[in-house]
Design brief:
about 675 residues; alpha/beta; 8-stranded mixed beta sheet; about 20% strand
């Protein structure tokens, strides 16, 4: 790879991929932040590696596709070609991996001081080695399938993200390669009995140490463990489904998912100094050496998530976060959530509030004779979804239940295919999205026929209907009986069914047609106020900011004098604080105990304030290529509460990092009291 350094920042624009890597660096920083307990720091290191795995599968895979389709095309902010971006990613990723290796060593040493030793084969005592060898021969070797590559045993195709052990073998003066897949069914960690401390060893390390025994009768010249990452980015056009699968998109997508593990390789991870094996595999994969990364420790760090299961329960409280207990539910246990929603808006902030309130609402609706119809959009679900059970029960009780389930929710396709069949069998009407637009909206429409009156209860949120992630992600929710929003919700589902994107709604801003247009109109409103010398402000929170049109509108607003404060968790392609250009714009990102996931768009102050919560980030894929919803927060008490939360986040000086004009993230000003926004929200201080 060329040593030429790729410039990922151009004037006031930041390259999307570089910005994401800066986000993942902030995740890695949490693995060294001593304000986090030890086992939580281990989890952050695992998340860092998992993030990079998905980044290579999806983003690098997409860029490699782009490089083949149109090598001269450039991104619209930093004018880099796909190849230039790939080269820059490979260079930067190498630095981050080296830093992560150092973090692992430090965490491993600290775990040892707390009574848990993660052993390598070289660190085993003679007794431990005997035990590990006996375990390997009894429990691992039978599940390995060694193969010598020759004319009768052609090269296997390395499955994406699966580990393999390769050996350079000699026998009778002949050199050949041996390979065996490491079964994902193997236990991830083996606990070695005996000793004062708890000793564990990963299955990877056991196979590194004893795997050569599978090739009895051969001399081992060199060995290496490796893992191939394949492109997981694929197009799933509804038009192709029409032609290839008789208008059944679910059958078409199932075929696409099955092919994901065999697409072109984008990364090779390999340990040791086995240059011959590395060259052989790179040639086989059609990859350049720049796509190869040396692994010093582990290929899969997910085992760090479960280290607590090996430790004494007495030791755990000091090594983990204190359990997060949901706040008192806004609708007391035993009271009707449906009646409460008909009386006034209900606000829920996950994970500080529990999703139980929403599940209770659906459970009630399944049984209430007034409820005629329930319609819902589904993007990601818990594998044991109580939401699905409530919908099934409603359908079985004669309610009209319509489920718009997005089959193209990346890496959740199989789960969604499964639940689409389950719901279909229960009598629900299933719709697989809308044309070639992903349906990413989070909305439930409940229609009540109460005598001659039609009433509506509508849920709108920023996150998925997933009970597990609602405990881990910060998301905002409104349950409202506002008639205009209710009519909009009914129209939304009707338009999904007939593939109509042109409908104008009374209150909701809906992409791909009107959300972006609405956001821009409010930015322009604040810009005009500033030009007239009136107070003007924009405060917003999102996961990513990449849409060039919206970025340019924000820059123009800032230049006009609009005070703009942004909380952007991940990708931010706007460079703030540049004198004369973006000095009225500030950006912070928060990485903490919970994944920041809510989207808030707030324009103006006081009586002039307009606030939306949304399923959409300000990314072109959301604003132009998906069906998304932004809903106004109509209840002033709820709007004040959300605005208060936003101000607390903007004041965070513990988990927040400020994006500077140099493109670096730095600690904010620590003067005054420490403010950890998520911890304050856990205490109900919002």
């Amino acid at each position: 790879m060329s040593d030429k350094k790729i410039k990922f920042i151009k004037d006031i624009y930041v390259n999307r991929e570089h910005s994401w890597m800066m986000f993942n660096k902030r995740v890695l920083d949490q693995a060294t932040d001593n304000t986090n307990p030890l086992l939580e720091r281990c989890k952050f290191l695992s998340i860092f590696h998992s993030n990079f795995d998905e980044f290579f599968m999806v983003r690098v895979g997409s860029l490699m596709n782009d490089s083949k389709l149109d090598p001269s095309a450039k991104d619209n902010k930093t004018l880099l070609t796909a190849k230039e971006q790939i080269d820059g990613i490979l260079s930067e990723a190498r630095h981050y991996y080296r830093a992560a290796d150092g973090v692992y060593v430090k965490l491993k040493n600290e775990l040892s001081k707390n009574g848990l030793k993660i052993k390598t084969g070289a660190e085993l005592s003679s007794k431990q080695r005997q035990k590990c060898k006996a375990y390997f021969e009894a429990h691992i070797l039978p599940l390995l399938s060694p193969m010598v590559l020759d004319a009768k045993h052609p090269m296997i195709r390395f499955e994406s993200m699966n580990c393999y052990m390769m050996f350079e073998l000699t026998k009778s003066d002949r050199t050949m390669y041996g390979v065996m897949a490491i079964s994902p069914k193997l236990p991830r960690v083996y606990k070695i009995d005996g000793g004062k401390k708890i000793n564990i060893i990963t299955v990877e390390e056991l196979i590194r140490t004893f795997g050569g025994a599978a090739f009895d009768g051969y001399a081992i010249k060199s060995q290496a463990m490796l893992r191939v990452t394949r492109n997981a980015d694929f197009d799933a056009s509804v038009d192709d489904a029409d032609v290839e699968r008789d208008f059944d998109f679910s059958k078409f997508l199932k075929q696409k998912v099955e092919l994901r593990g065999t697409q072109d390789a984008v990364r090779l991870q390999i340990d040791g100094d086995a240059d011959g094996i590395r060259s052989f595999v790179l040639k086989l994969l059609g990859l350049k050496k720049s796509h190869s990364f040396e692994v010093k420790h582990c290929f899969d760090y997910k085992f760090l998530m479960s280290l607590g299961s090996f430790m004494s329960p007495d030791a755990l409280p000091a090594l983990k976060y204190k359990p997060a207990r949901p706040l008192t539910p806004p609708v007391p246990e035993g009271a009707s959530v449906l009646e409460a929603a008909l009386s006034g808006d209900i606000f829920l902030a996950y994970p500080f509030d529990s999703m139980d309130t929403l599940v209770r609402l659906l459970d009630e609706c399944a049984e209430d004779s007034r409820v005629a119809a329930i319609k819902i959009t589904i993007y990601r679900l818990d594998h044991r979804s109580r939401i699905v059970e409530a919908l099934k029960r409603a359908s079985e009780n004669g309610k009209e239940v319509t489920v718009v389930i997005e089959l193209c929710a990346r890496f959740d396709e199989e789960n969604n295919l499964h639940f689409s069949e389950v719901l279909k069998e229960a009598g629900c009407t299933i719709i697989y999205g809308m044309g070639n637009y992903k349906v990413h909206s989070k909305i439930i429409s409940i229609v009540l026929a109460d005598g001659e009156d039609i009433r509506y209860v509508t849920h709108l949120g920023t996150g998925n209907y997933n009970e597990q992630t609602s405990k881990l992600y910060t998301d905002l929710n409104i349950i409202t009986s506002d008639d205009a929003i209710g009519r909009d919700a009914v129209a939304f589902f009707r338009n999904i069914a007939i593939c109509n994107t042109e409908h104008e709604y009374e209150r909701l801003l809906i992409a791909p047609k009107y959300l972006k247009r609405g956001i821009i109109s409010y930015i322009e409103r604040e810009t005009e106020k500033a030009k007239k010398g009136k107070p003007a402000s924009i405060s917003a929170k999102m996961n990513s900011l990449t849409d060039r049109t919206i970025i340019d509108k924000l820059i123009a607003a800032g230049k006009a004098g609009v005070k703009i404060r942004l909380v952007v968790r991940g990708i931010c392609c706007l460079l703030p604080e540049v004198p004369g250009k973006t000095d009225n714009i500030s950006v912070i990102g928060i990485v903490g105990r919970f994944l920041e996931h809510s989207r808030i768009y707030c324009f103006g102050e006081g009586d002039d304030r307009v606030m939306f919560i949304s399923s959409a980030d300000l990314m072109t894929r959301n604003t132009d290529k998906r069906v998304e919803i932004a809903t106004p927060v109509l209840d002033k008490t709820n709007a004040d509460r959300i605005y208060g939360m936003l101000n607390v986040m903007l004041s965070d000086n513990v988990k927040a990092r400020r994006l500077t004009s140099s493109g670096e993230y730095v600690m904010p000003d620590m003067s005054g009291d420490a403010v950890n926004s998520q911890e304050l929200f856990l205490q109900g201080k919002f």
